[in-house]
Write a structure and sequence with these properties.
2 domains, Aspartate Aminotransferase, domain 2, 12 strands, 393 residues, alpha/beta
């Protein structure tokens, strides 16, 4: 299996078949398991094997299939499936850090990630230093001998700023820090995070992995000792584990994730190119465009521009007019979905940030984040174009 392509692994890796030999993976909707004897129960609690389970909060056959499959796709030794993307982010940080530890993080993060680092971790005695993710000199200056974790989004939400994974990993490792990457925008399809030096990779499986607006989920990937050590210990006792039904849904989603994401990426590239010189836009941000300030880095790390782009209409009033004129694009705060979604971050996902911080990050009142779905790219571009005309009328 190690020689298989990602798309093949996404269909077959981690499959566990019952005695009936089913083709489609079975779903085990059980929270508990039966032991033939008291001695067997004792032995199970003392030394749980790979295919031995105690309680669904600790592990389940269906959840284990998802964990094995996503780990194979990512090239990780192991994975732990979580109830949501934020359960994965907060769980990875809480399981790894203790009072007195130091974290260096990129400043451009999803709003909930910022909350966990700024409010939750500091409340428990963790010191957090924020840097501009694209500035390697700031990373070098901030990472100290006592830095325990380096954390960043490989491609930031919502302004699509890329962090040089390999360079930051080298800076972190030189001081003995664990390098933790939120890799949602890169997707497992284009991910090279572990190859480039990351120790831990985190996904919100709600996004491209499910990709159909049905399930909340998250996953933490890394070395087996780390996943089955501090991560599993923390998650199973605090209740952040994924449900078996969600795991089964995601197992089935992985089968066609590669096809979906590549089609979405092709459409995103067409839409970005079609909007790049539009007179009613002040900015078009897409890593696949040569105008993106880190285009070369994005091409090296992902090989493409991805499924996300952002446009700036210049003002909140104009952006709201555009959003309200859309016919195909949905106004929502999710992303990575089969349906195309438009989000005004300044007034939704990042609204809690002070205005000065929004301005520093480039989250202007007129910014609209676009998550490209599976509709026809020409239809999507035409819808945006007509909405831009309405917004400027």
């Amino acid at each position: 299996m190690s020689e298989w392509n990602k798309r093949t692994k996404a269909v077959h890796a981690g499959t566990r078949r019952s005695q009936w030999g089913e083709v489609s993976e079975a779903i085990f909707l059980t929270q508990g398991f039966v032991y033939p004897t008291a001695e067997a129960a004792q032995a199970r609690f003392q030394n749980t094997g790979d295919d031995e389970f105690i309680y669904a909060r600790y592990g389940n056959p269906t959840t284990a299939m998802f964990e094995d499959r996503i780990a194979a796709i990512e090239g990780a030794e192991d994975a732990f499936a979580c109830a949501s993307g934020m359960a994965a982010v907060s769980g990875a940080l809480m399981a790894t850090l203790k009072a007195g530890d130091h974290v260096v993080s990129s400043r451009a993060l999803f709003g909930s990630c910022l909350y966990v680092l700024e409010e939750v971790m500091t409340r428990y005695g963790v010191e957090v230093t924020f840097v501009d993710g694209a500035d390697l000199d700031q990373w070098r200056a901030a990472v100290r001998d006592d830095t325990a974790v380096v954390f960043f989004e490989s491609l930031s939400n919502p302004v699509l700023e890329a962090v040089d994974i390999q360079a930051v990993a080298e800076i972190g490792h030189a001081k003995g820090a664990l390098v933790m990457v939120d890799n949602v925008f890169a997707t497992p399809v284009y991910s090279r995070a572990l190859e480039l030096g990351a120790d831990v990779v985190i996904y919100s499986a709600t996004k491209h992995i499910d990709g159909q607006g049905r399930s909340l989920g998250g996953v933490i990937l890394g070395k087996r000792d780390y996943i089955r050590g501090p991560i599993e210990t923390y998650m199973k006792h605090t209740g952040g584990s994924m449900s078996p039904f969600t795991a089964w849904t995601l197992v089935k989603s992985l089968e066609h994730m590669d096809l979906r994401v590549r089609a979405q990426t092709d459409s995103a590239a067409q839409i970005a190119a079609g909007l790049e010189n539009h007179p009613n836009l002040t900015r078009v941000i897409y890593p696949g465009l040569q105008s993106h300030p880190q285009h070369a880095l994005c091409m090296d790390q992902m090989g493409c521009g991805g499924t996300m782009l952002a446009i700036d209409t210049g003002s909140q009033e104009t952006s709201f007019k555009l959003l309200n004129a859309l016919e195909i694009w949905l106004i929502s705060n999710n992303l990575g979905d089969a349906k195309s979604i438009a989000t005004p971050p300044a007034s939704t996902t990042h609204q809690r940030l002070p205005d000065a911080q929004k301005a520093h990050l480039g989250i202007t009142p007129g910014l609209i984040r676009l998550s490209v779905g599976l509709e026809d790219a020409g239809d999507l571009l035409a819808d945006l174009t007509q909405a831009l005309d309405v917004a400027q009328a």
